[in-house]
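Consider the tokenized backbone below.
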């Protein structure tokens, strides 16, 4: 029996580049990073990041429940609401038992846990919040979306570090294919810009140090790349079987054609230098989609701006795609949104398919000489794209790849 096709019918985003999908897309295409000094990080080794701004999250979320939500949960709720509206759906009209929610995250509510620990240490138990646990546990984005959307089908919270968003989309696709739901709200969220996390990344050596303006510090695939810049945000999508979407007259944004996942099993933070296992994830996604490598017309790279990570991925891209399809790396603008990155970047890949525009890699005047991989620089590339892939590679060796096709 043939596997039913799964399409993306709705997309919602909140990122450092904008508080909705359209504004985020325009910001990424501008090639200008909003990275800035963050007052809450004063005194930290790293005091800058790409943050969501220009929005009152409590007011935007609304209702009486915002007090129990960490920032990462609020991001997810807002992105999910945009995605469902974009899909032309109304939770008041659907059978909630046939709606699944799959929302990944890497650190969950670690910021909330830290705040509660500090309050306990300094002022005692009475200073902690009765909602302290709800501000911490990583399943709360999926839970709060399910509550708001009256979704009583499967609900999951995948955690595969920086690949969590791509993993969530893959899990949601499988739920639809196996008939466990008819609609899936899927993606990922992250809010990790707080002193403990930023200090941890600084001490690990993964983060860029200030050697100029924060907006210029994330330089994926540059010879002088010096580490990641932190970001935050969320992207959620509505996935449906293609036949179901067609029956209700929905216009799909993209076909989720294939997924692939592997694990390096090499080191907690460093990718395997050969890139062989990450390459296997790419090849698995292509097989799942029924594509040849030369069918790929665009690569949305993981591109963290770390020395080893970019070198490993560039070598992989050169081997898998010798025809040099145009490559972008959104972290130059958005920073590394950690668990949310894979979902955000898959969303941007969908927008490339729709608009025929490949955004430039911010801060990249010229790739390192050894990176002859088709990097788009300085300005958006206007080029029709029918098939594209989005790479996600995370701490722990988690590799996840999404293959997307214009419907």
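A designed sequence for it:
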């Amino acid at each position: 029996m043939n596997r039913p096709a799964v399409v993306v019918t709705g997309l919602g985003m909140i990122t450092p580049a904008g508080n909705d999908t359209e504004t985020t897309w325009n910001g990424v295409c501008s090639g200008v990073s909003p990275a800035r000094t963050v007052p809450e990080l004063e005194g930290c080794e790293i005091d800058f990041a790409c943050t969501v701004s220009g929005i009152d999250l409590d007011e935007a979320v609304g209702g009486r429940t915002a007090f129990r939500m960490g920032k990462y949960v609020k991001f997810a709720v807002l992105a999910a609401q945009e995605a469902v509206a974009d899909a032309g759906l109304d939770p008041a009209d659907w059978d909630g038992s046939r709606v699944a929610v799959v929302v990944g995250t890497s650190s969950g509510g670690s910021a909330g846990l830290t705040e509660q620990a500090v309050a306990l240490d300094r002022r005692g138990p009475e200073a902690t919040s009765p909602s302290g646990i709800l501000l911490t546990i990583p399943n709360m984005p999926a839970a709060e979306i399910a509550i708001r959307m009256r979704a009583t089908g499967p609900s999951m919270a995948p955690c595969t570090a920086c690949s969590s968003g791509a993993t969530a989309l893959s899990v949601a696709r499988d739920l639809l294919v196996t008939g466990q739901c008819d609609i899936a709200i899927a993606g990922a969220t992250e809010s990790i810009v707080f002193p403990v996390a930023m200090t941890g990344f600084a001490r690990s050596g993964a983060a860029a140090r200030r050697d100029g303006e924060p907006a210029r510090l994330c330089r994926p695939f540059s010879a002088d790349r010096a580490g990641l810049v932190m970001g935050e945000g969320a992207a959620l999508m509505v996935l449906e079987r293609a036949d179901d979407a067609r029956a209700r007259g929905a216009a799909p944004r993209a076909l989720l054609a294939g997924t692939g996942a592997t694990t390096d099993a090499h080191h907690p933070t460093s990718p395997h230098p050969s890139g062989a296992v990450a390459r296997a994830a790419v090849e698995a996604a292509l097989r799942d989609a029924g594509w040849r490598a030369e069918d790929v017309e665009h690569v949305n790279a993981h591109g963290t701006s770390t020395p080893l990570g970019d070198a490993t991925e560039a070598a992989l891209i050169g081997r898998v795609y010798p025809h040099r399809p145009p490559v972008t790396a959104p972290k130059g603008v958005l920073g590394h949104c950690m668990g949310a990155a894979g979902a955000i970047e898959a969303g941007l890949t969908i927008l490339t398919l729709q608009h025929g525009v490949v955004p430039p890699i911010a801060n990249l005047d010229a790739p390192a000489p050894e990176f002859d991989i088709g990097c788009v620089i300085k300005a958006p590339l206007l080029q029709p794209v029918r098939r594209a892939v989005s790479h996600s590679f995370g701490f722990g060796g988690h590799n996840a790849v999404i293959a997307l096709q214009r419907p």
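The radius of gyration is 20 Å.
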